[in-house]
Amino acid sequence: MMRMNDQVAIIGVGHSAVGRRLERPLGLLAVDAAMAAITDAGLTVDDIDGAATYPRLPQTGSTPRVDGMTHVSVDWMVRHLGARSVRWWAQPEYGNVSTAIESAVRALADGRCDYAVVWRALHLPKAGSYQTSHNRQEARGELAFTAPYGYSGAAGMFAMAYTRYQQLYGATREHMAALVLAQRRGALLNPHAHFKDTPLTLDEYMAARTIAEPLCLFDCDIPVDGAGAIVLARADRAADAPNPGAWVTGLGQSGIGQPGTFALGAAPSADLYERCRMTARTIGDSLWETSGLKPEDIGGAMLYDGFAPDVYIWLEELGFCKEGEAFEFIQGGRVEIHGELPINTFGGSLSEGRLHGIGHWIEATLQVQGRAGARQISNAENVVVATGLLNHGSGAVLSRSSRP
Questions:
Q1: Less CB within 10 Å around the terminal CB: N or C of the chain?
Q2: Contact by Cβ (8 Å): 380, 370
Q3: pTM here?
């Protein structure tokens, strides 16, 4: 597999407002984020000649789809930004925001554009405003064997998989608290986080409402309205940017499985976690091969956390610890901002809000650039970012220096 050779860097990042059921339409939130990233990169809209996003809704079956309201396509963004110079674009329907970012990296490396903006926008529908296959009054097909018993939707499926992990290795909710509380402390230092003003104690975590045993409320990502964006540049253009480049030194992707396995379906708990493990393992193999680095070279990790136990799988399959050891690995302050391997220092999806991975990319960039402020980690030479499990994940190593 070919080394990345630092052909592309992230030079700008931007957020919109992030909150629960904001009055501002999703499309305008996405424009806010994109403009913030473009300005942060020292550019104007006319400089942008590449655009990419992953536009799908968090609820796959949600209706109706209204561009600019429930999602923000490349076409909508380009028109409303007034980005007349765009000559390359990508809008993958499967994957996640990292898939769109990887496409942009490849296009920039191939010289198909000079500067690319990539965004992810998430909308929190009002209660009762949408239907999915999991909240109808009928259970059809394979759901007939699971939904009537509460085994439907992501929370129930991941809860059973998490229960199996606990039983196999001896992990407890008290162990998980170390990660969740560390991420909340990071969110308190993040002005964009939904929980920026809401501390969390161990007692509050242990007493939290159960969503699907053993997952509690604070083990689940917090749905929000909001958007994030990054601007990437070719190496020769990155040299002129006002911010140091966060160089893409490794890339990894996984698409294991048969057609249709991107959906949760009614996967048994053992199969669910094995699919997650295979995804993370495949990404990790590519990251280390394309970057020439090893887990011990990494100073921080921004790992997608739709549910808190996701981080266990990332840690084990990316090689930071062995299978069944992650719950012990995160103890003793290791994953805190000033720990040995800081994780999700901005709060993650659990405490910043569910932006489907773009927040992880923004934080990894800021850490590598040395611009994370009170959240800045001491060793940010190389930071891993990985998002998406269940066969459709992607990730990267971002590095402070460009290595020929």
A1: C
A2: yes
A3: 0.93
